[in-house]
Amino acid sequence: MALFNSIFTTLFDLLLARFGYGRPWFDLLLWPLVGGVMALLVIKAVSNQAGILRAKNLIQVHLLEIVLFRDQLRVVLPATVRALGYNVQYLAYNIVPMFVMIVPMTAILVQLVSHYAYAPLPLNSPVTLVVELDRAVAGVKPADVSLELPAGVQLDAPPVRTSGNVVAWRLRATEAGDHVLRVRAGAWTEEKRLSAGGEPRKVSMLRTKGLEALLYPAEPVPAAESPVWSVRIMERRDQPLGWLPSGEGGILLWFFAVSLLVGFLLKDIFGVTL
Amino acid sequence: MLVAAVALSFSGCASPSRTSPDRPGLFVLGIDGMDPAILRRLIAEGKAPNFKKLAEQGGFQELGTSNPPQSPVAWSNFVTGLDPGGHGIYDFVHRDPATYMPTSSATPPPGDPGTFVKVGGYHLPVLPGDEVLNNRSGTAWWDAVYAAGVDVEVYRIPGNYPVPASEAKTLSGMGTVDMRGGYGEYTWITDSAPVPPQGHDLKGDVQLVAVEDFDLDGIPDTVKASLKGPPDLFHLEPGKLPGESDYLSAAITVSIDPAEEVALIELGEERVVLKEGEWSPWVPVSFDALPGGVMPLAGSVRFYAKELRPAFKLYASPVNLSADTPPQPISTPPAFATDLAELLGGQYYTQGMPEETNALKDGTFDDDDYVRQVALIQEDGSAMLSLALARFQRGDATFVYLSDIDLQCHMLWRHGDPKHGDAPAHPAFEPVSAAAHRLDIEGYYRHVDGLLGRVMERLPPDTLLLTMSDHGFQPFTRVVHLNAWLRDNGFLMLKGGKRTGQIALGDVDWSRTKAYALGFNSVYLNLQGREAQGIVSAGEADAVAQDLRTRLLALTDGDEARRVVLRVDRGRDIYRGDRVAEAPDLIIGYDRGYGHSDESTLGEILEAQLADNTSRWSGNHLMAPEVVPGVLLSSHAIQGEAHDLTDVTSTILAWYGVDPLPGMLGAPFLTP
To answer: Which domains does chain A have, with CATH numbers?
Structure first.
């Protein structure tokens, strides 16, 4: 997971935001387009195109049968069953390309979200930092965890050390920047970036050893031997994207809508049956 | 399709102005409960310089309020230019003559719930039932002004929930419900049961919890509780009112640090660190009406860590409807509420009356807690006023409602009468707290004066600025248990020889009852053909009403024989409009210092007729209209005198050259 994140993050840090974070539209148009074309190529390469065409034709035939003989139950019922059967077959033909595509498509989407979904937090507003300890790594308790703050970030309340192996702080960034917070857990130190104020840029919300790391690849996954399971900033602000839908959900919807549109527009050029 | 999507996105960003900038605009500041006598004193003492400036620029008069002078009634007069006979809002509380049960005046009694099919324990709607509509009739002034081509923005207008359809931009205020569907129920999570004042039922949802020692280190550290959300409508029998266990809920975990007085509150995906004595920012919370997150209902809540140790006392505000994604419309267009959330940087108070009067009445809040919560609401109101001013352009019509005065007068009057300097101590006077809070009401007036200064500074100079209130204020020292008085005077009979009981519990013997009180100023005859078990014939009604009126006007209190009731009006005589038939038969106008008890308002019959008001709800305006007039200040000279709320409506229409709408009662007070 750490290697996967590292490869894709390095790659997309090179590819994305070539025109700056203030002009997200280029990437948010280009990459769904790439996704749509990639999907067409994958479908053409790995799917049973003849089978898909046949299933579609047979669905149409049986739908026509239902329309033409709507007053004859003996015709309509078997036709309905067959139409449903060919629908299932059609979906089955699409499973293989879906499995092939899911990894690269998700990786592109996650990288777009990572770069464009979140805005730096406002200055002087409360920020909750939550550190969860890894129960599998023995020896460190919440009492052994401390936080080292850089200049420009202030502690707003004493830490809360919970019985659930969690330590939480309330902070306040007083200066703009990508501040590095250092969490000391016993002899181990983990770092977490806190972006506050200033221009739009890549903002990291979470570092974790959990599967969630696949969705939040902006910072490295903590090492396996680290006593820290995750470091999370609770507050998040959506980065406004002008006329494009913003936030995680907005980018997700936009990505799939444009990819689908591109796929349907270009399917004949690529000779693909969808 | 792509082009269409992009074009649609652009079109959502800004709407072109409809207002012609070659005519002056209108800005109305609606200040609930501002009293002319208090304002006059503060102006004379130099404590309200901006009100003084406005009064000198145009004028300052008393403004006649509605009869009865209740906020929903008064604001409906202002909104429509009609009286209750026209708009149909007679009281906070109406009654259903078929059942004698109290109902909300904002919405008519529920009708057909629709047709449902039960699937896996869920009642899924098949055919829609009756839509829940606002009970107010008439045309709102903003609709008439909008139709004349004016950009209108109306912020937090009372009595506008459920939100009637409108082309104008409106945000509903007083009357807007919380997630539970009421006017606001707070949650009190504690390990020590609160002791309410004697005879007072707790209004909050009190959860008695244990602070548990989860890590077995000898120091209690964790509290598990829950926050009630909206009624679980898909599990609830259609048409049935929700019981205590019929609400969706969200789990709360509070972890207290073993050494410091600080806690981590977890609610869903959200976590917030709170020191003892601190208020949290808004914390979003979502309730799933259907499994799998298919129908999330979004709300927002604020926590207050009153005490973490040795006792545990955590307050959670009523769950406000999310301003960003309200689960039901609170504005027109629906996106207006969302746009405001974006412009204000997040959640704002959507609950109609967010001041936590219930916790103060329950005794879970003290005055310091209450005043600090009011300060949060003031910040919120001030930000919204600034936004309204920033959006105001020459020619526009804008209304902004301010709640700074009303509920604070209700709750803090007992510390020192701001209107009658020589008044004896209020029965609910608390000497220790009074020392700190005696001048709070004056402070709120001065705060509003500061806001007015901001408004006057920002508006284009030729804008008509109207500052008005729906009613004034008086002390509330004695409560009248009117149903007890009706019983003692032979108008109301209880079953089985009982002397006390409740209408809602079936204790009243309707076969012998001629009249009953429900609502804050309303008395109904038990009329044949209207009430389900009516005994008073149409022929007898006038005589019974006249008998009641005569005896009520003769009612006196104490050794000094103080007059209790100043006036008694017959609804059908004082109201005009299509809905006069729904009017209460008698509207009771109490003299200064007197008012309906809460018990009588909801149909309870107690032993005593009159009692000291020992509740912290110590100032009031539910009296005769002439003892609680409101204020009217204008940037332009006011012609004539003795204006009332409906005149303000007519003046607004006349300002834009709009003819009065059918049934409107007022007359403009500005020279054309």
So the answer is: 2-117+245-266 (no CATH), 119-238 (2.60.40.10)
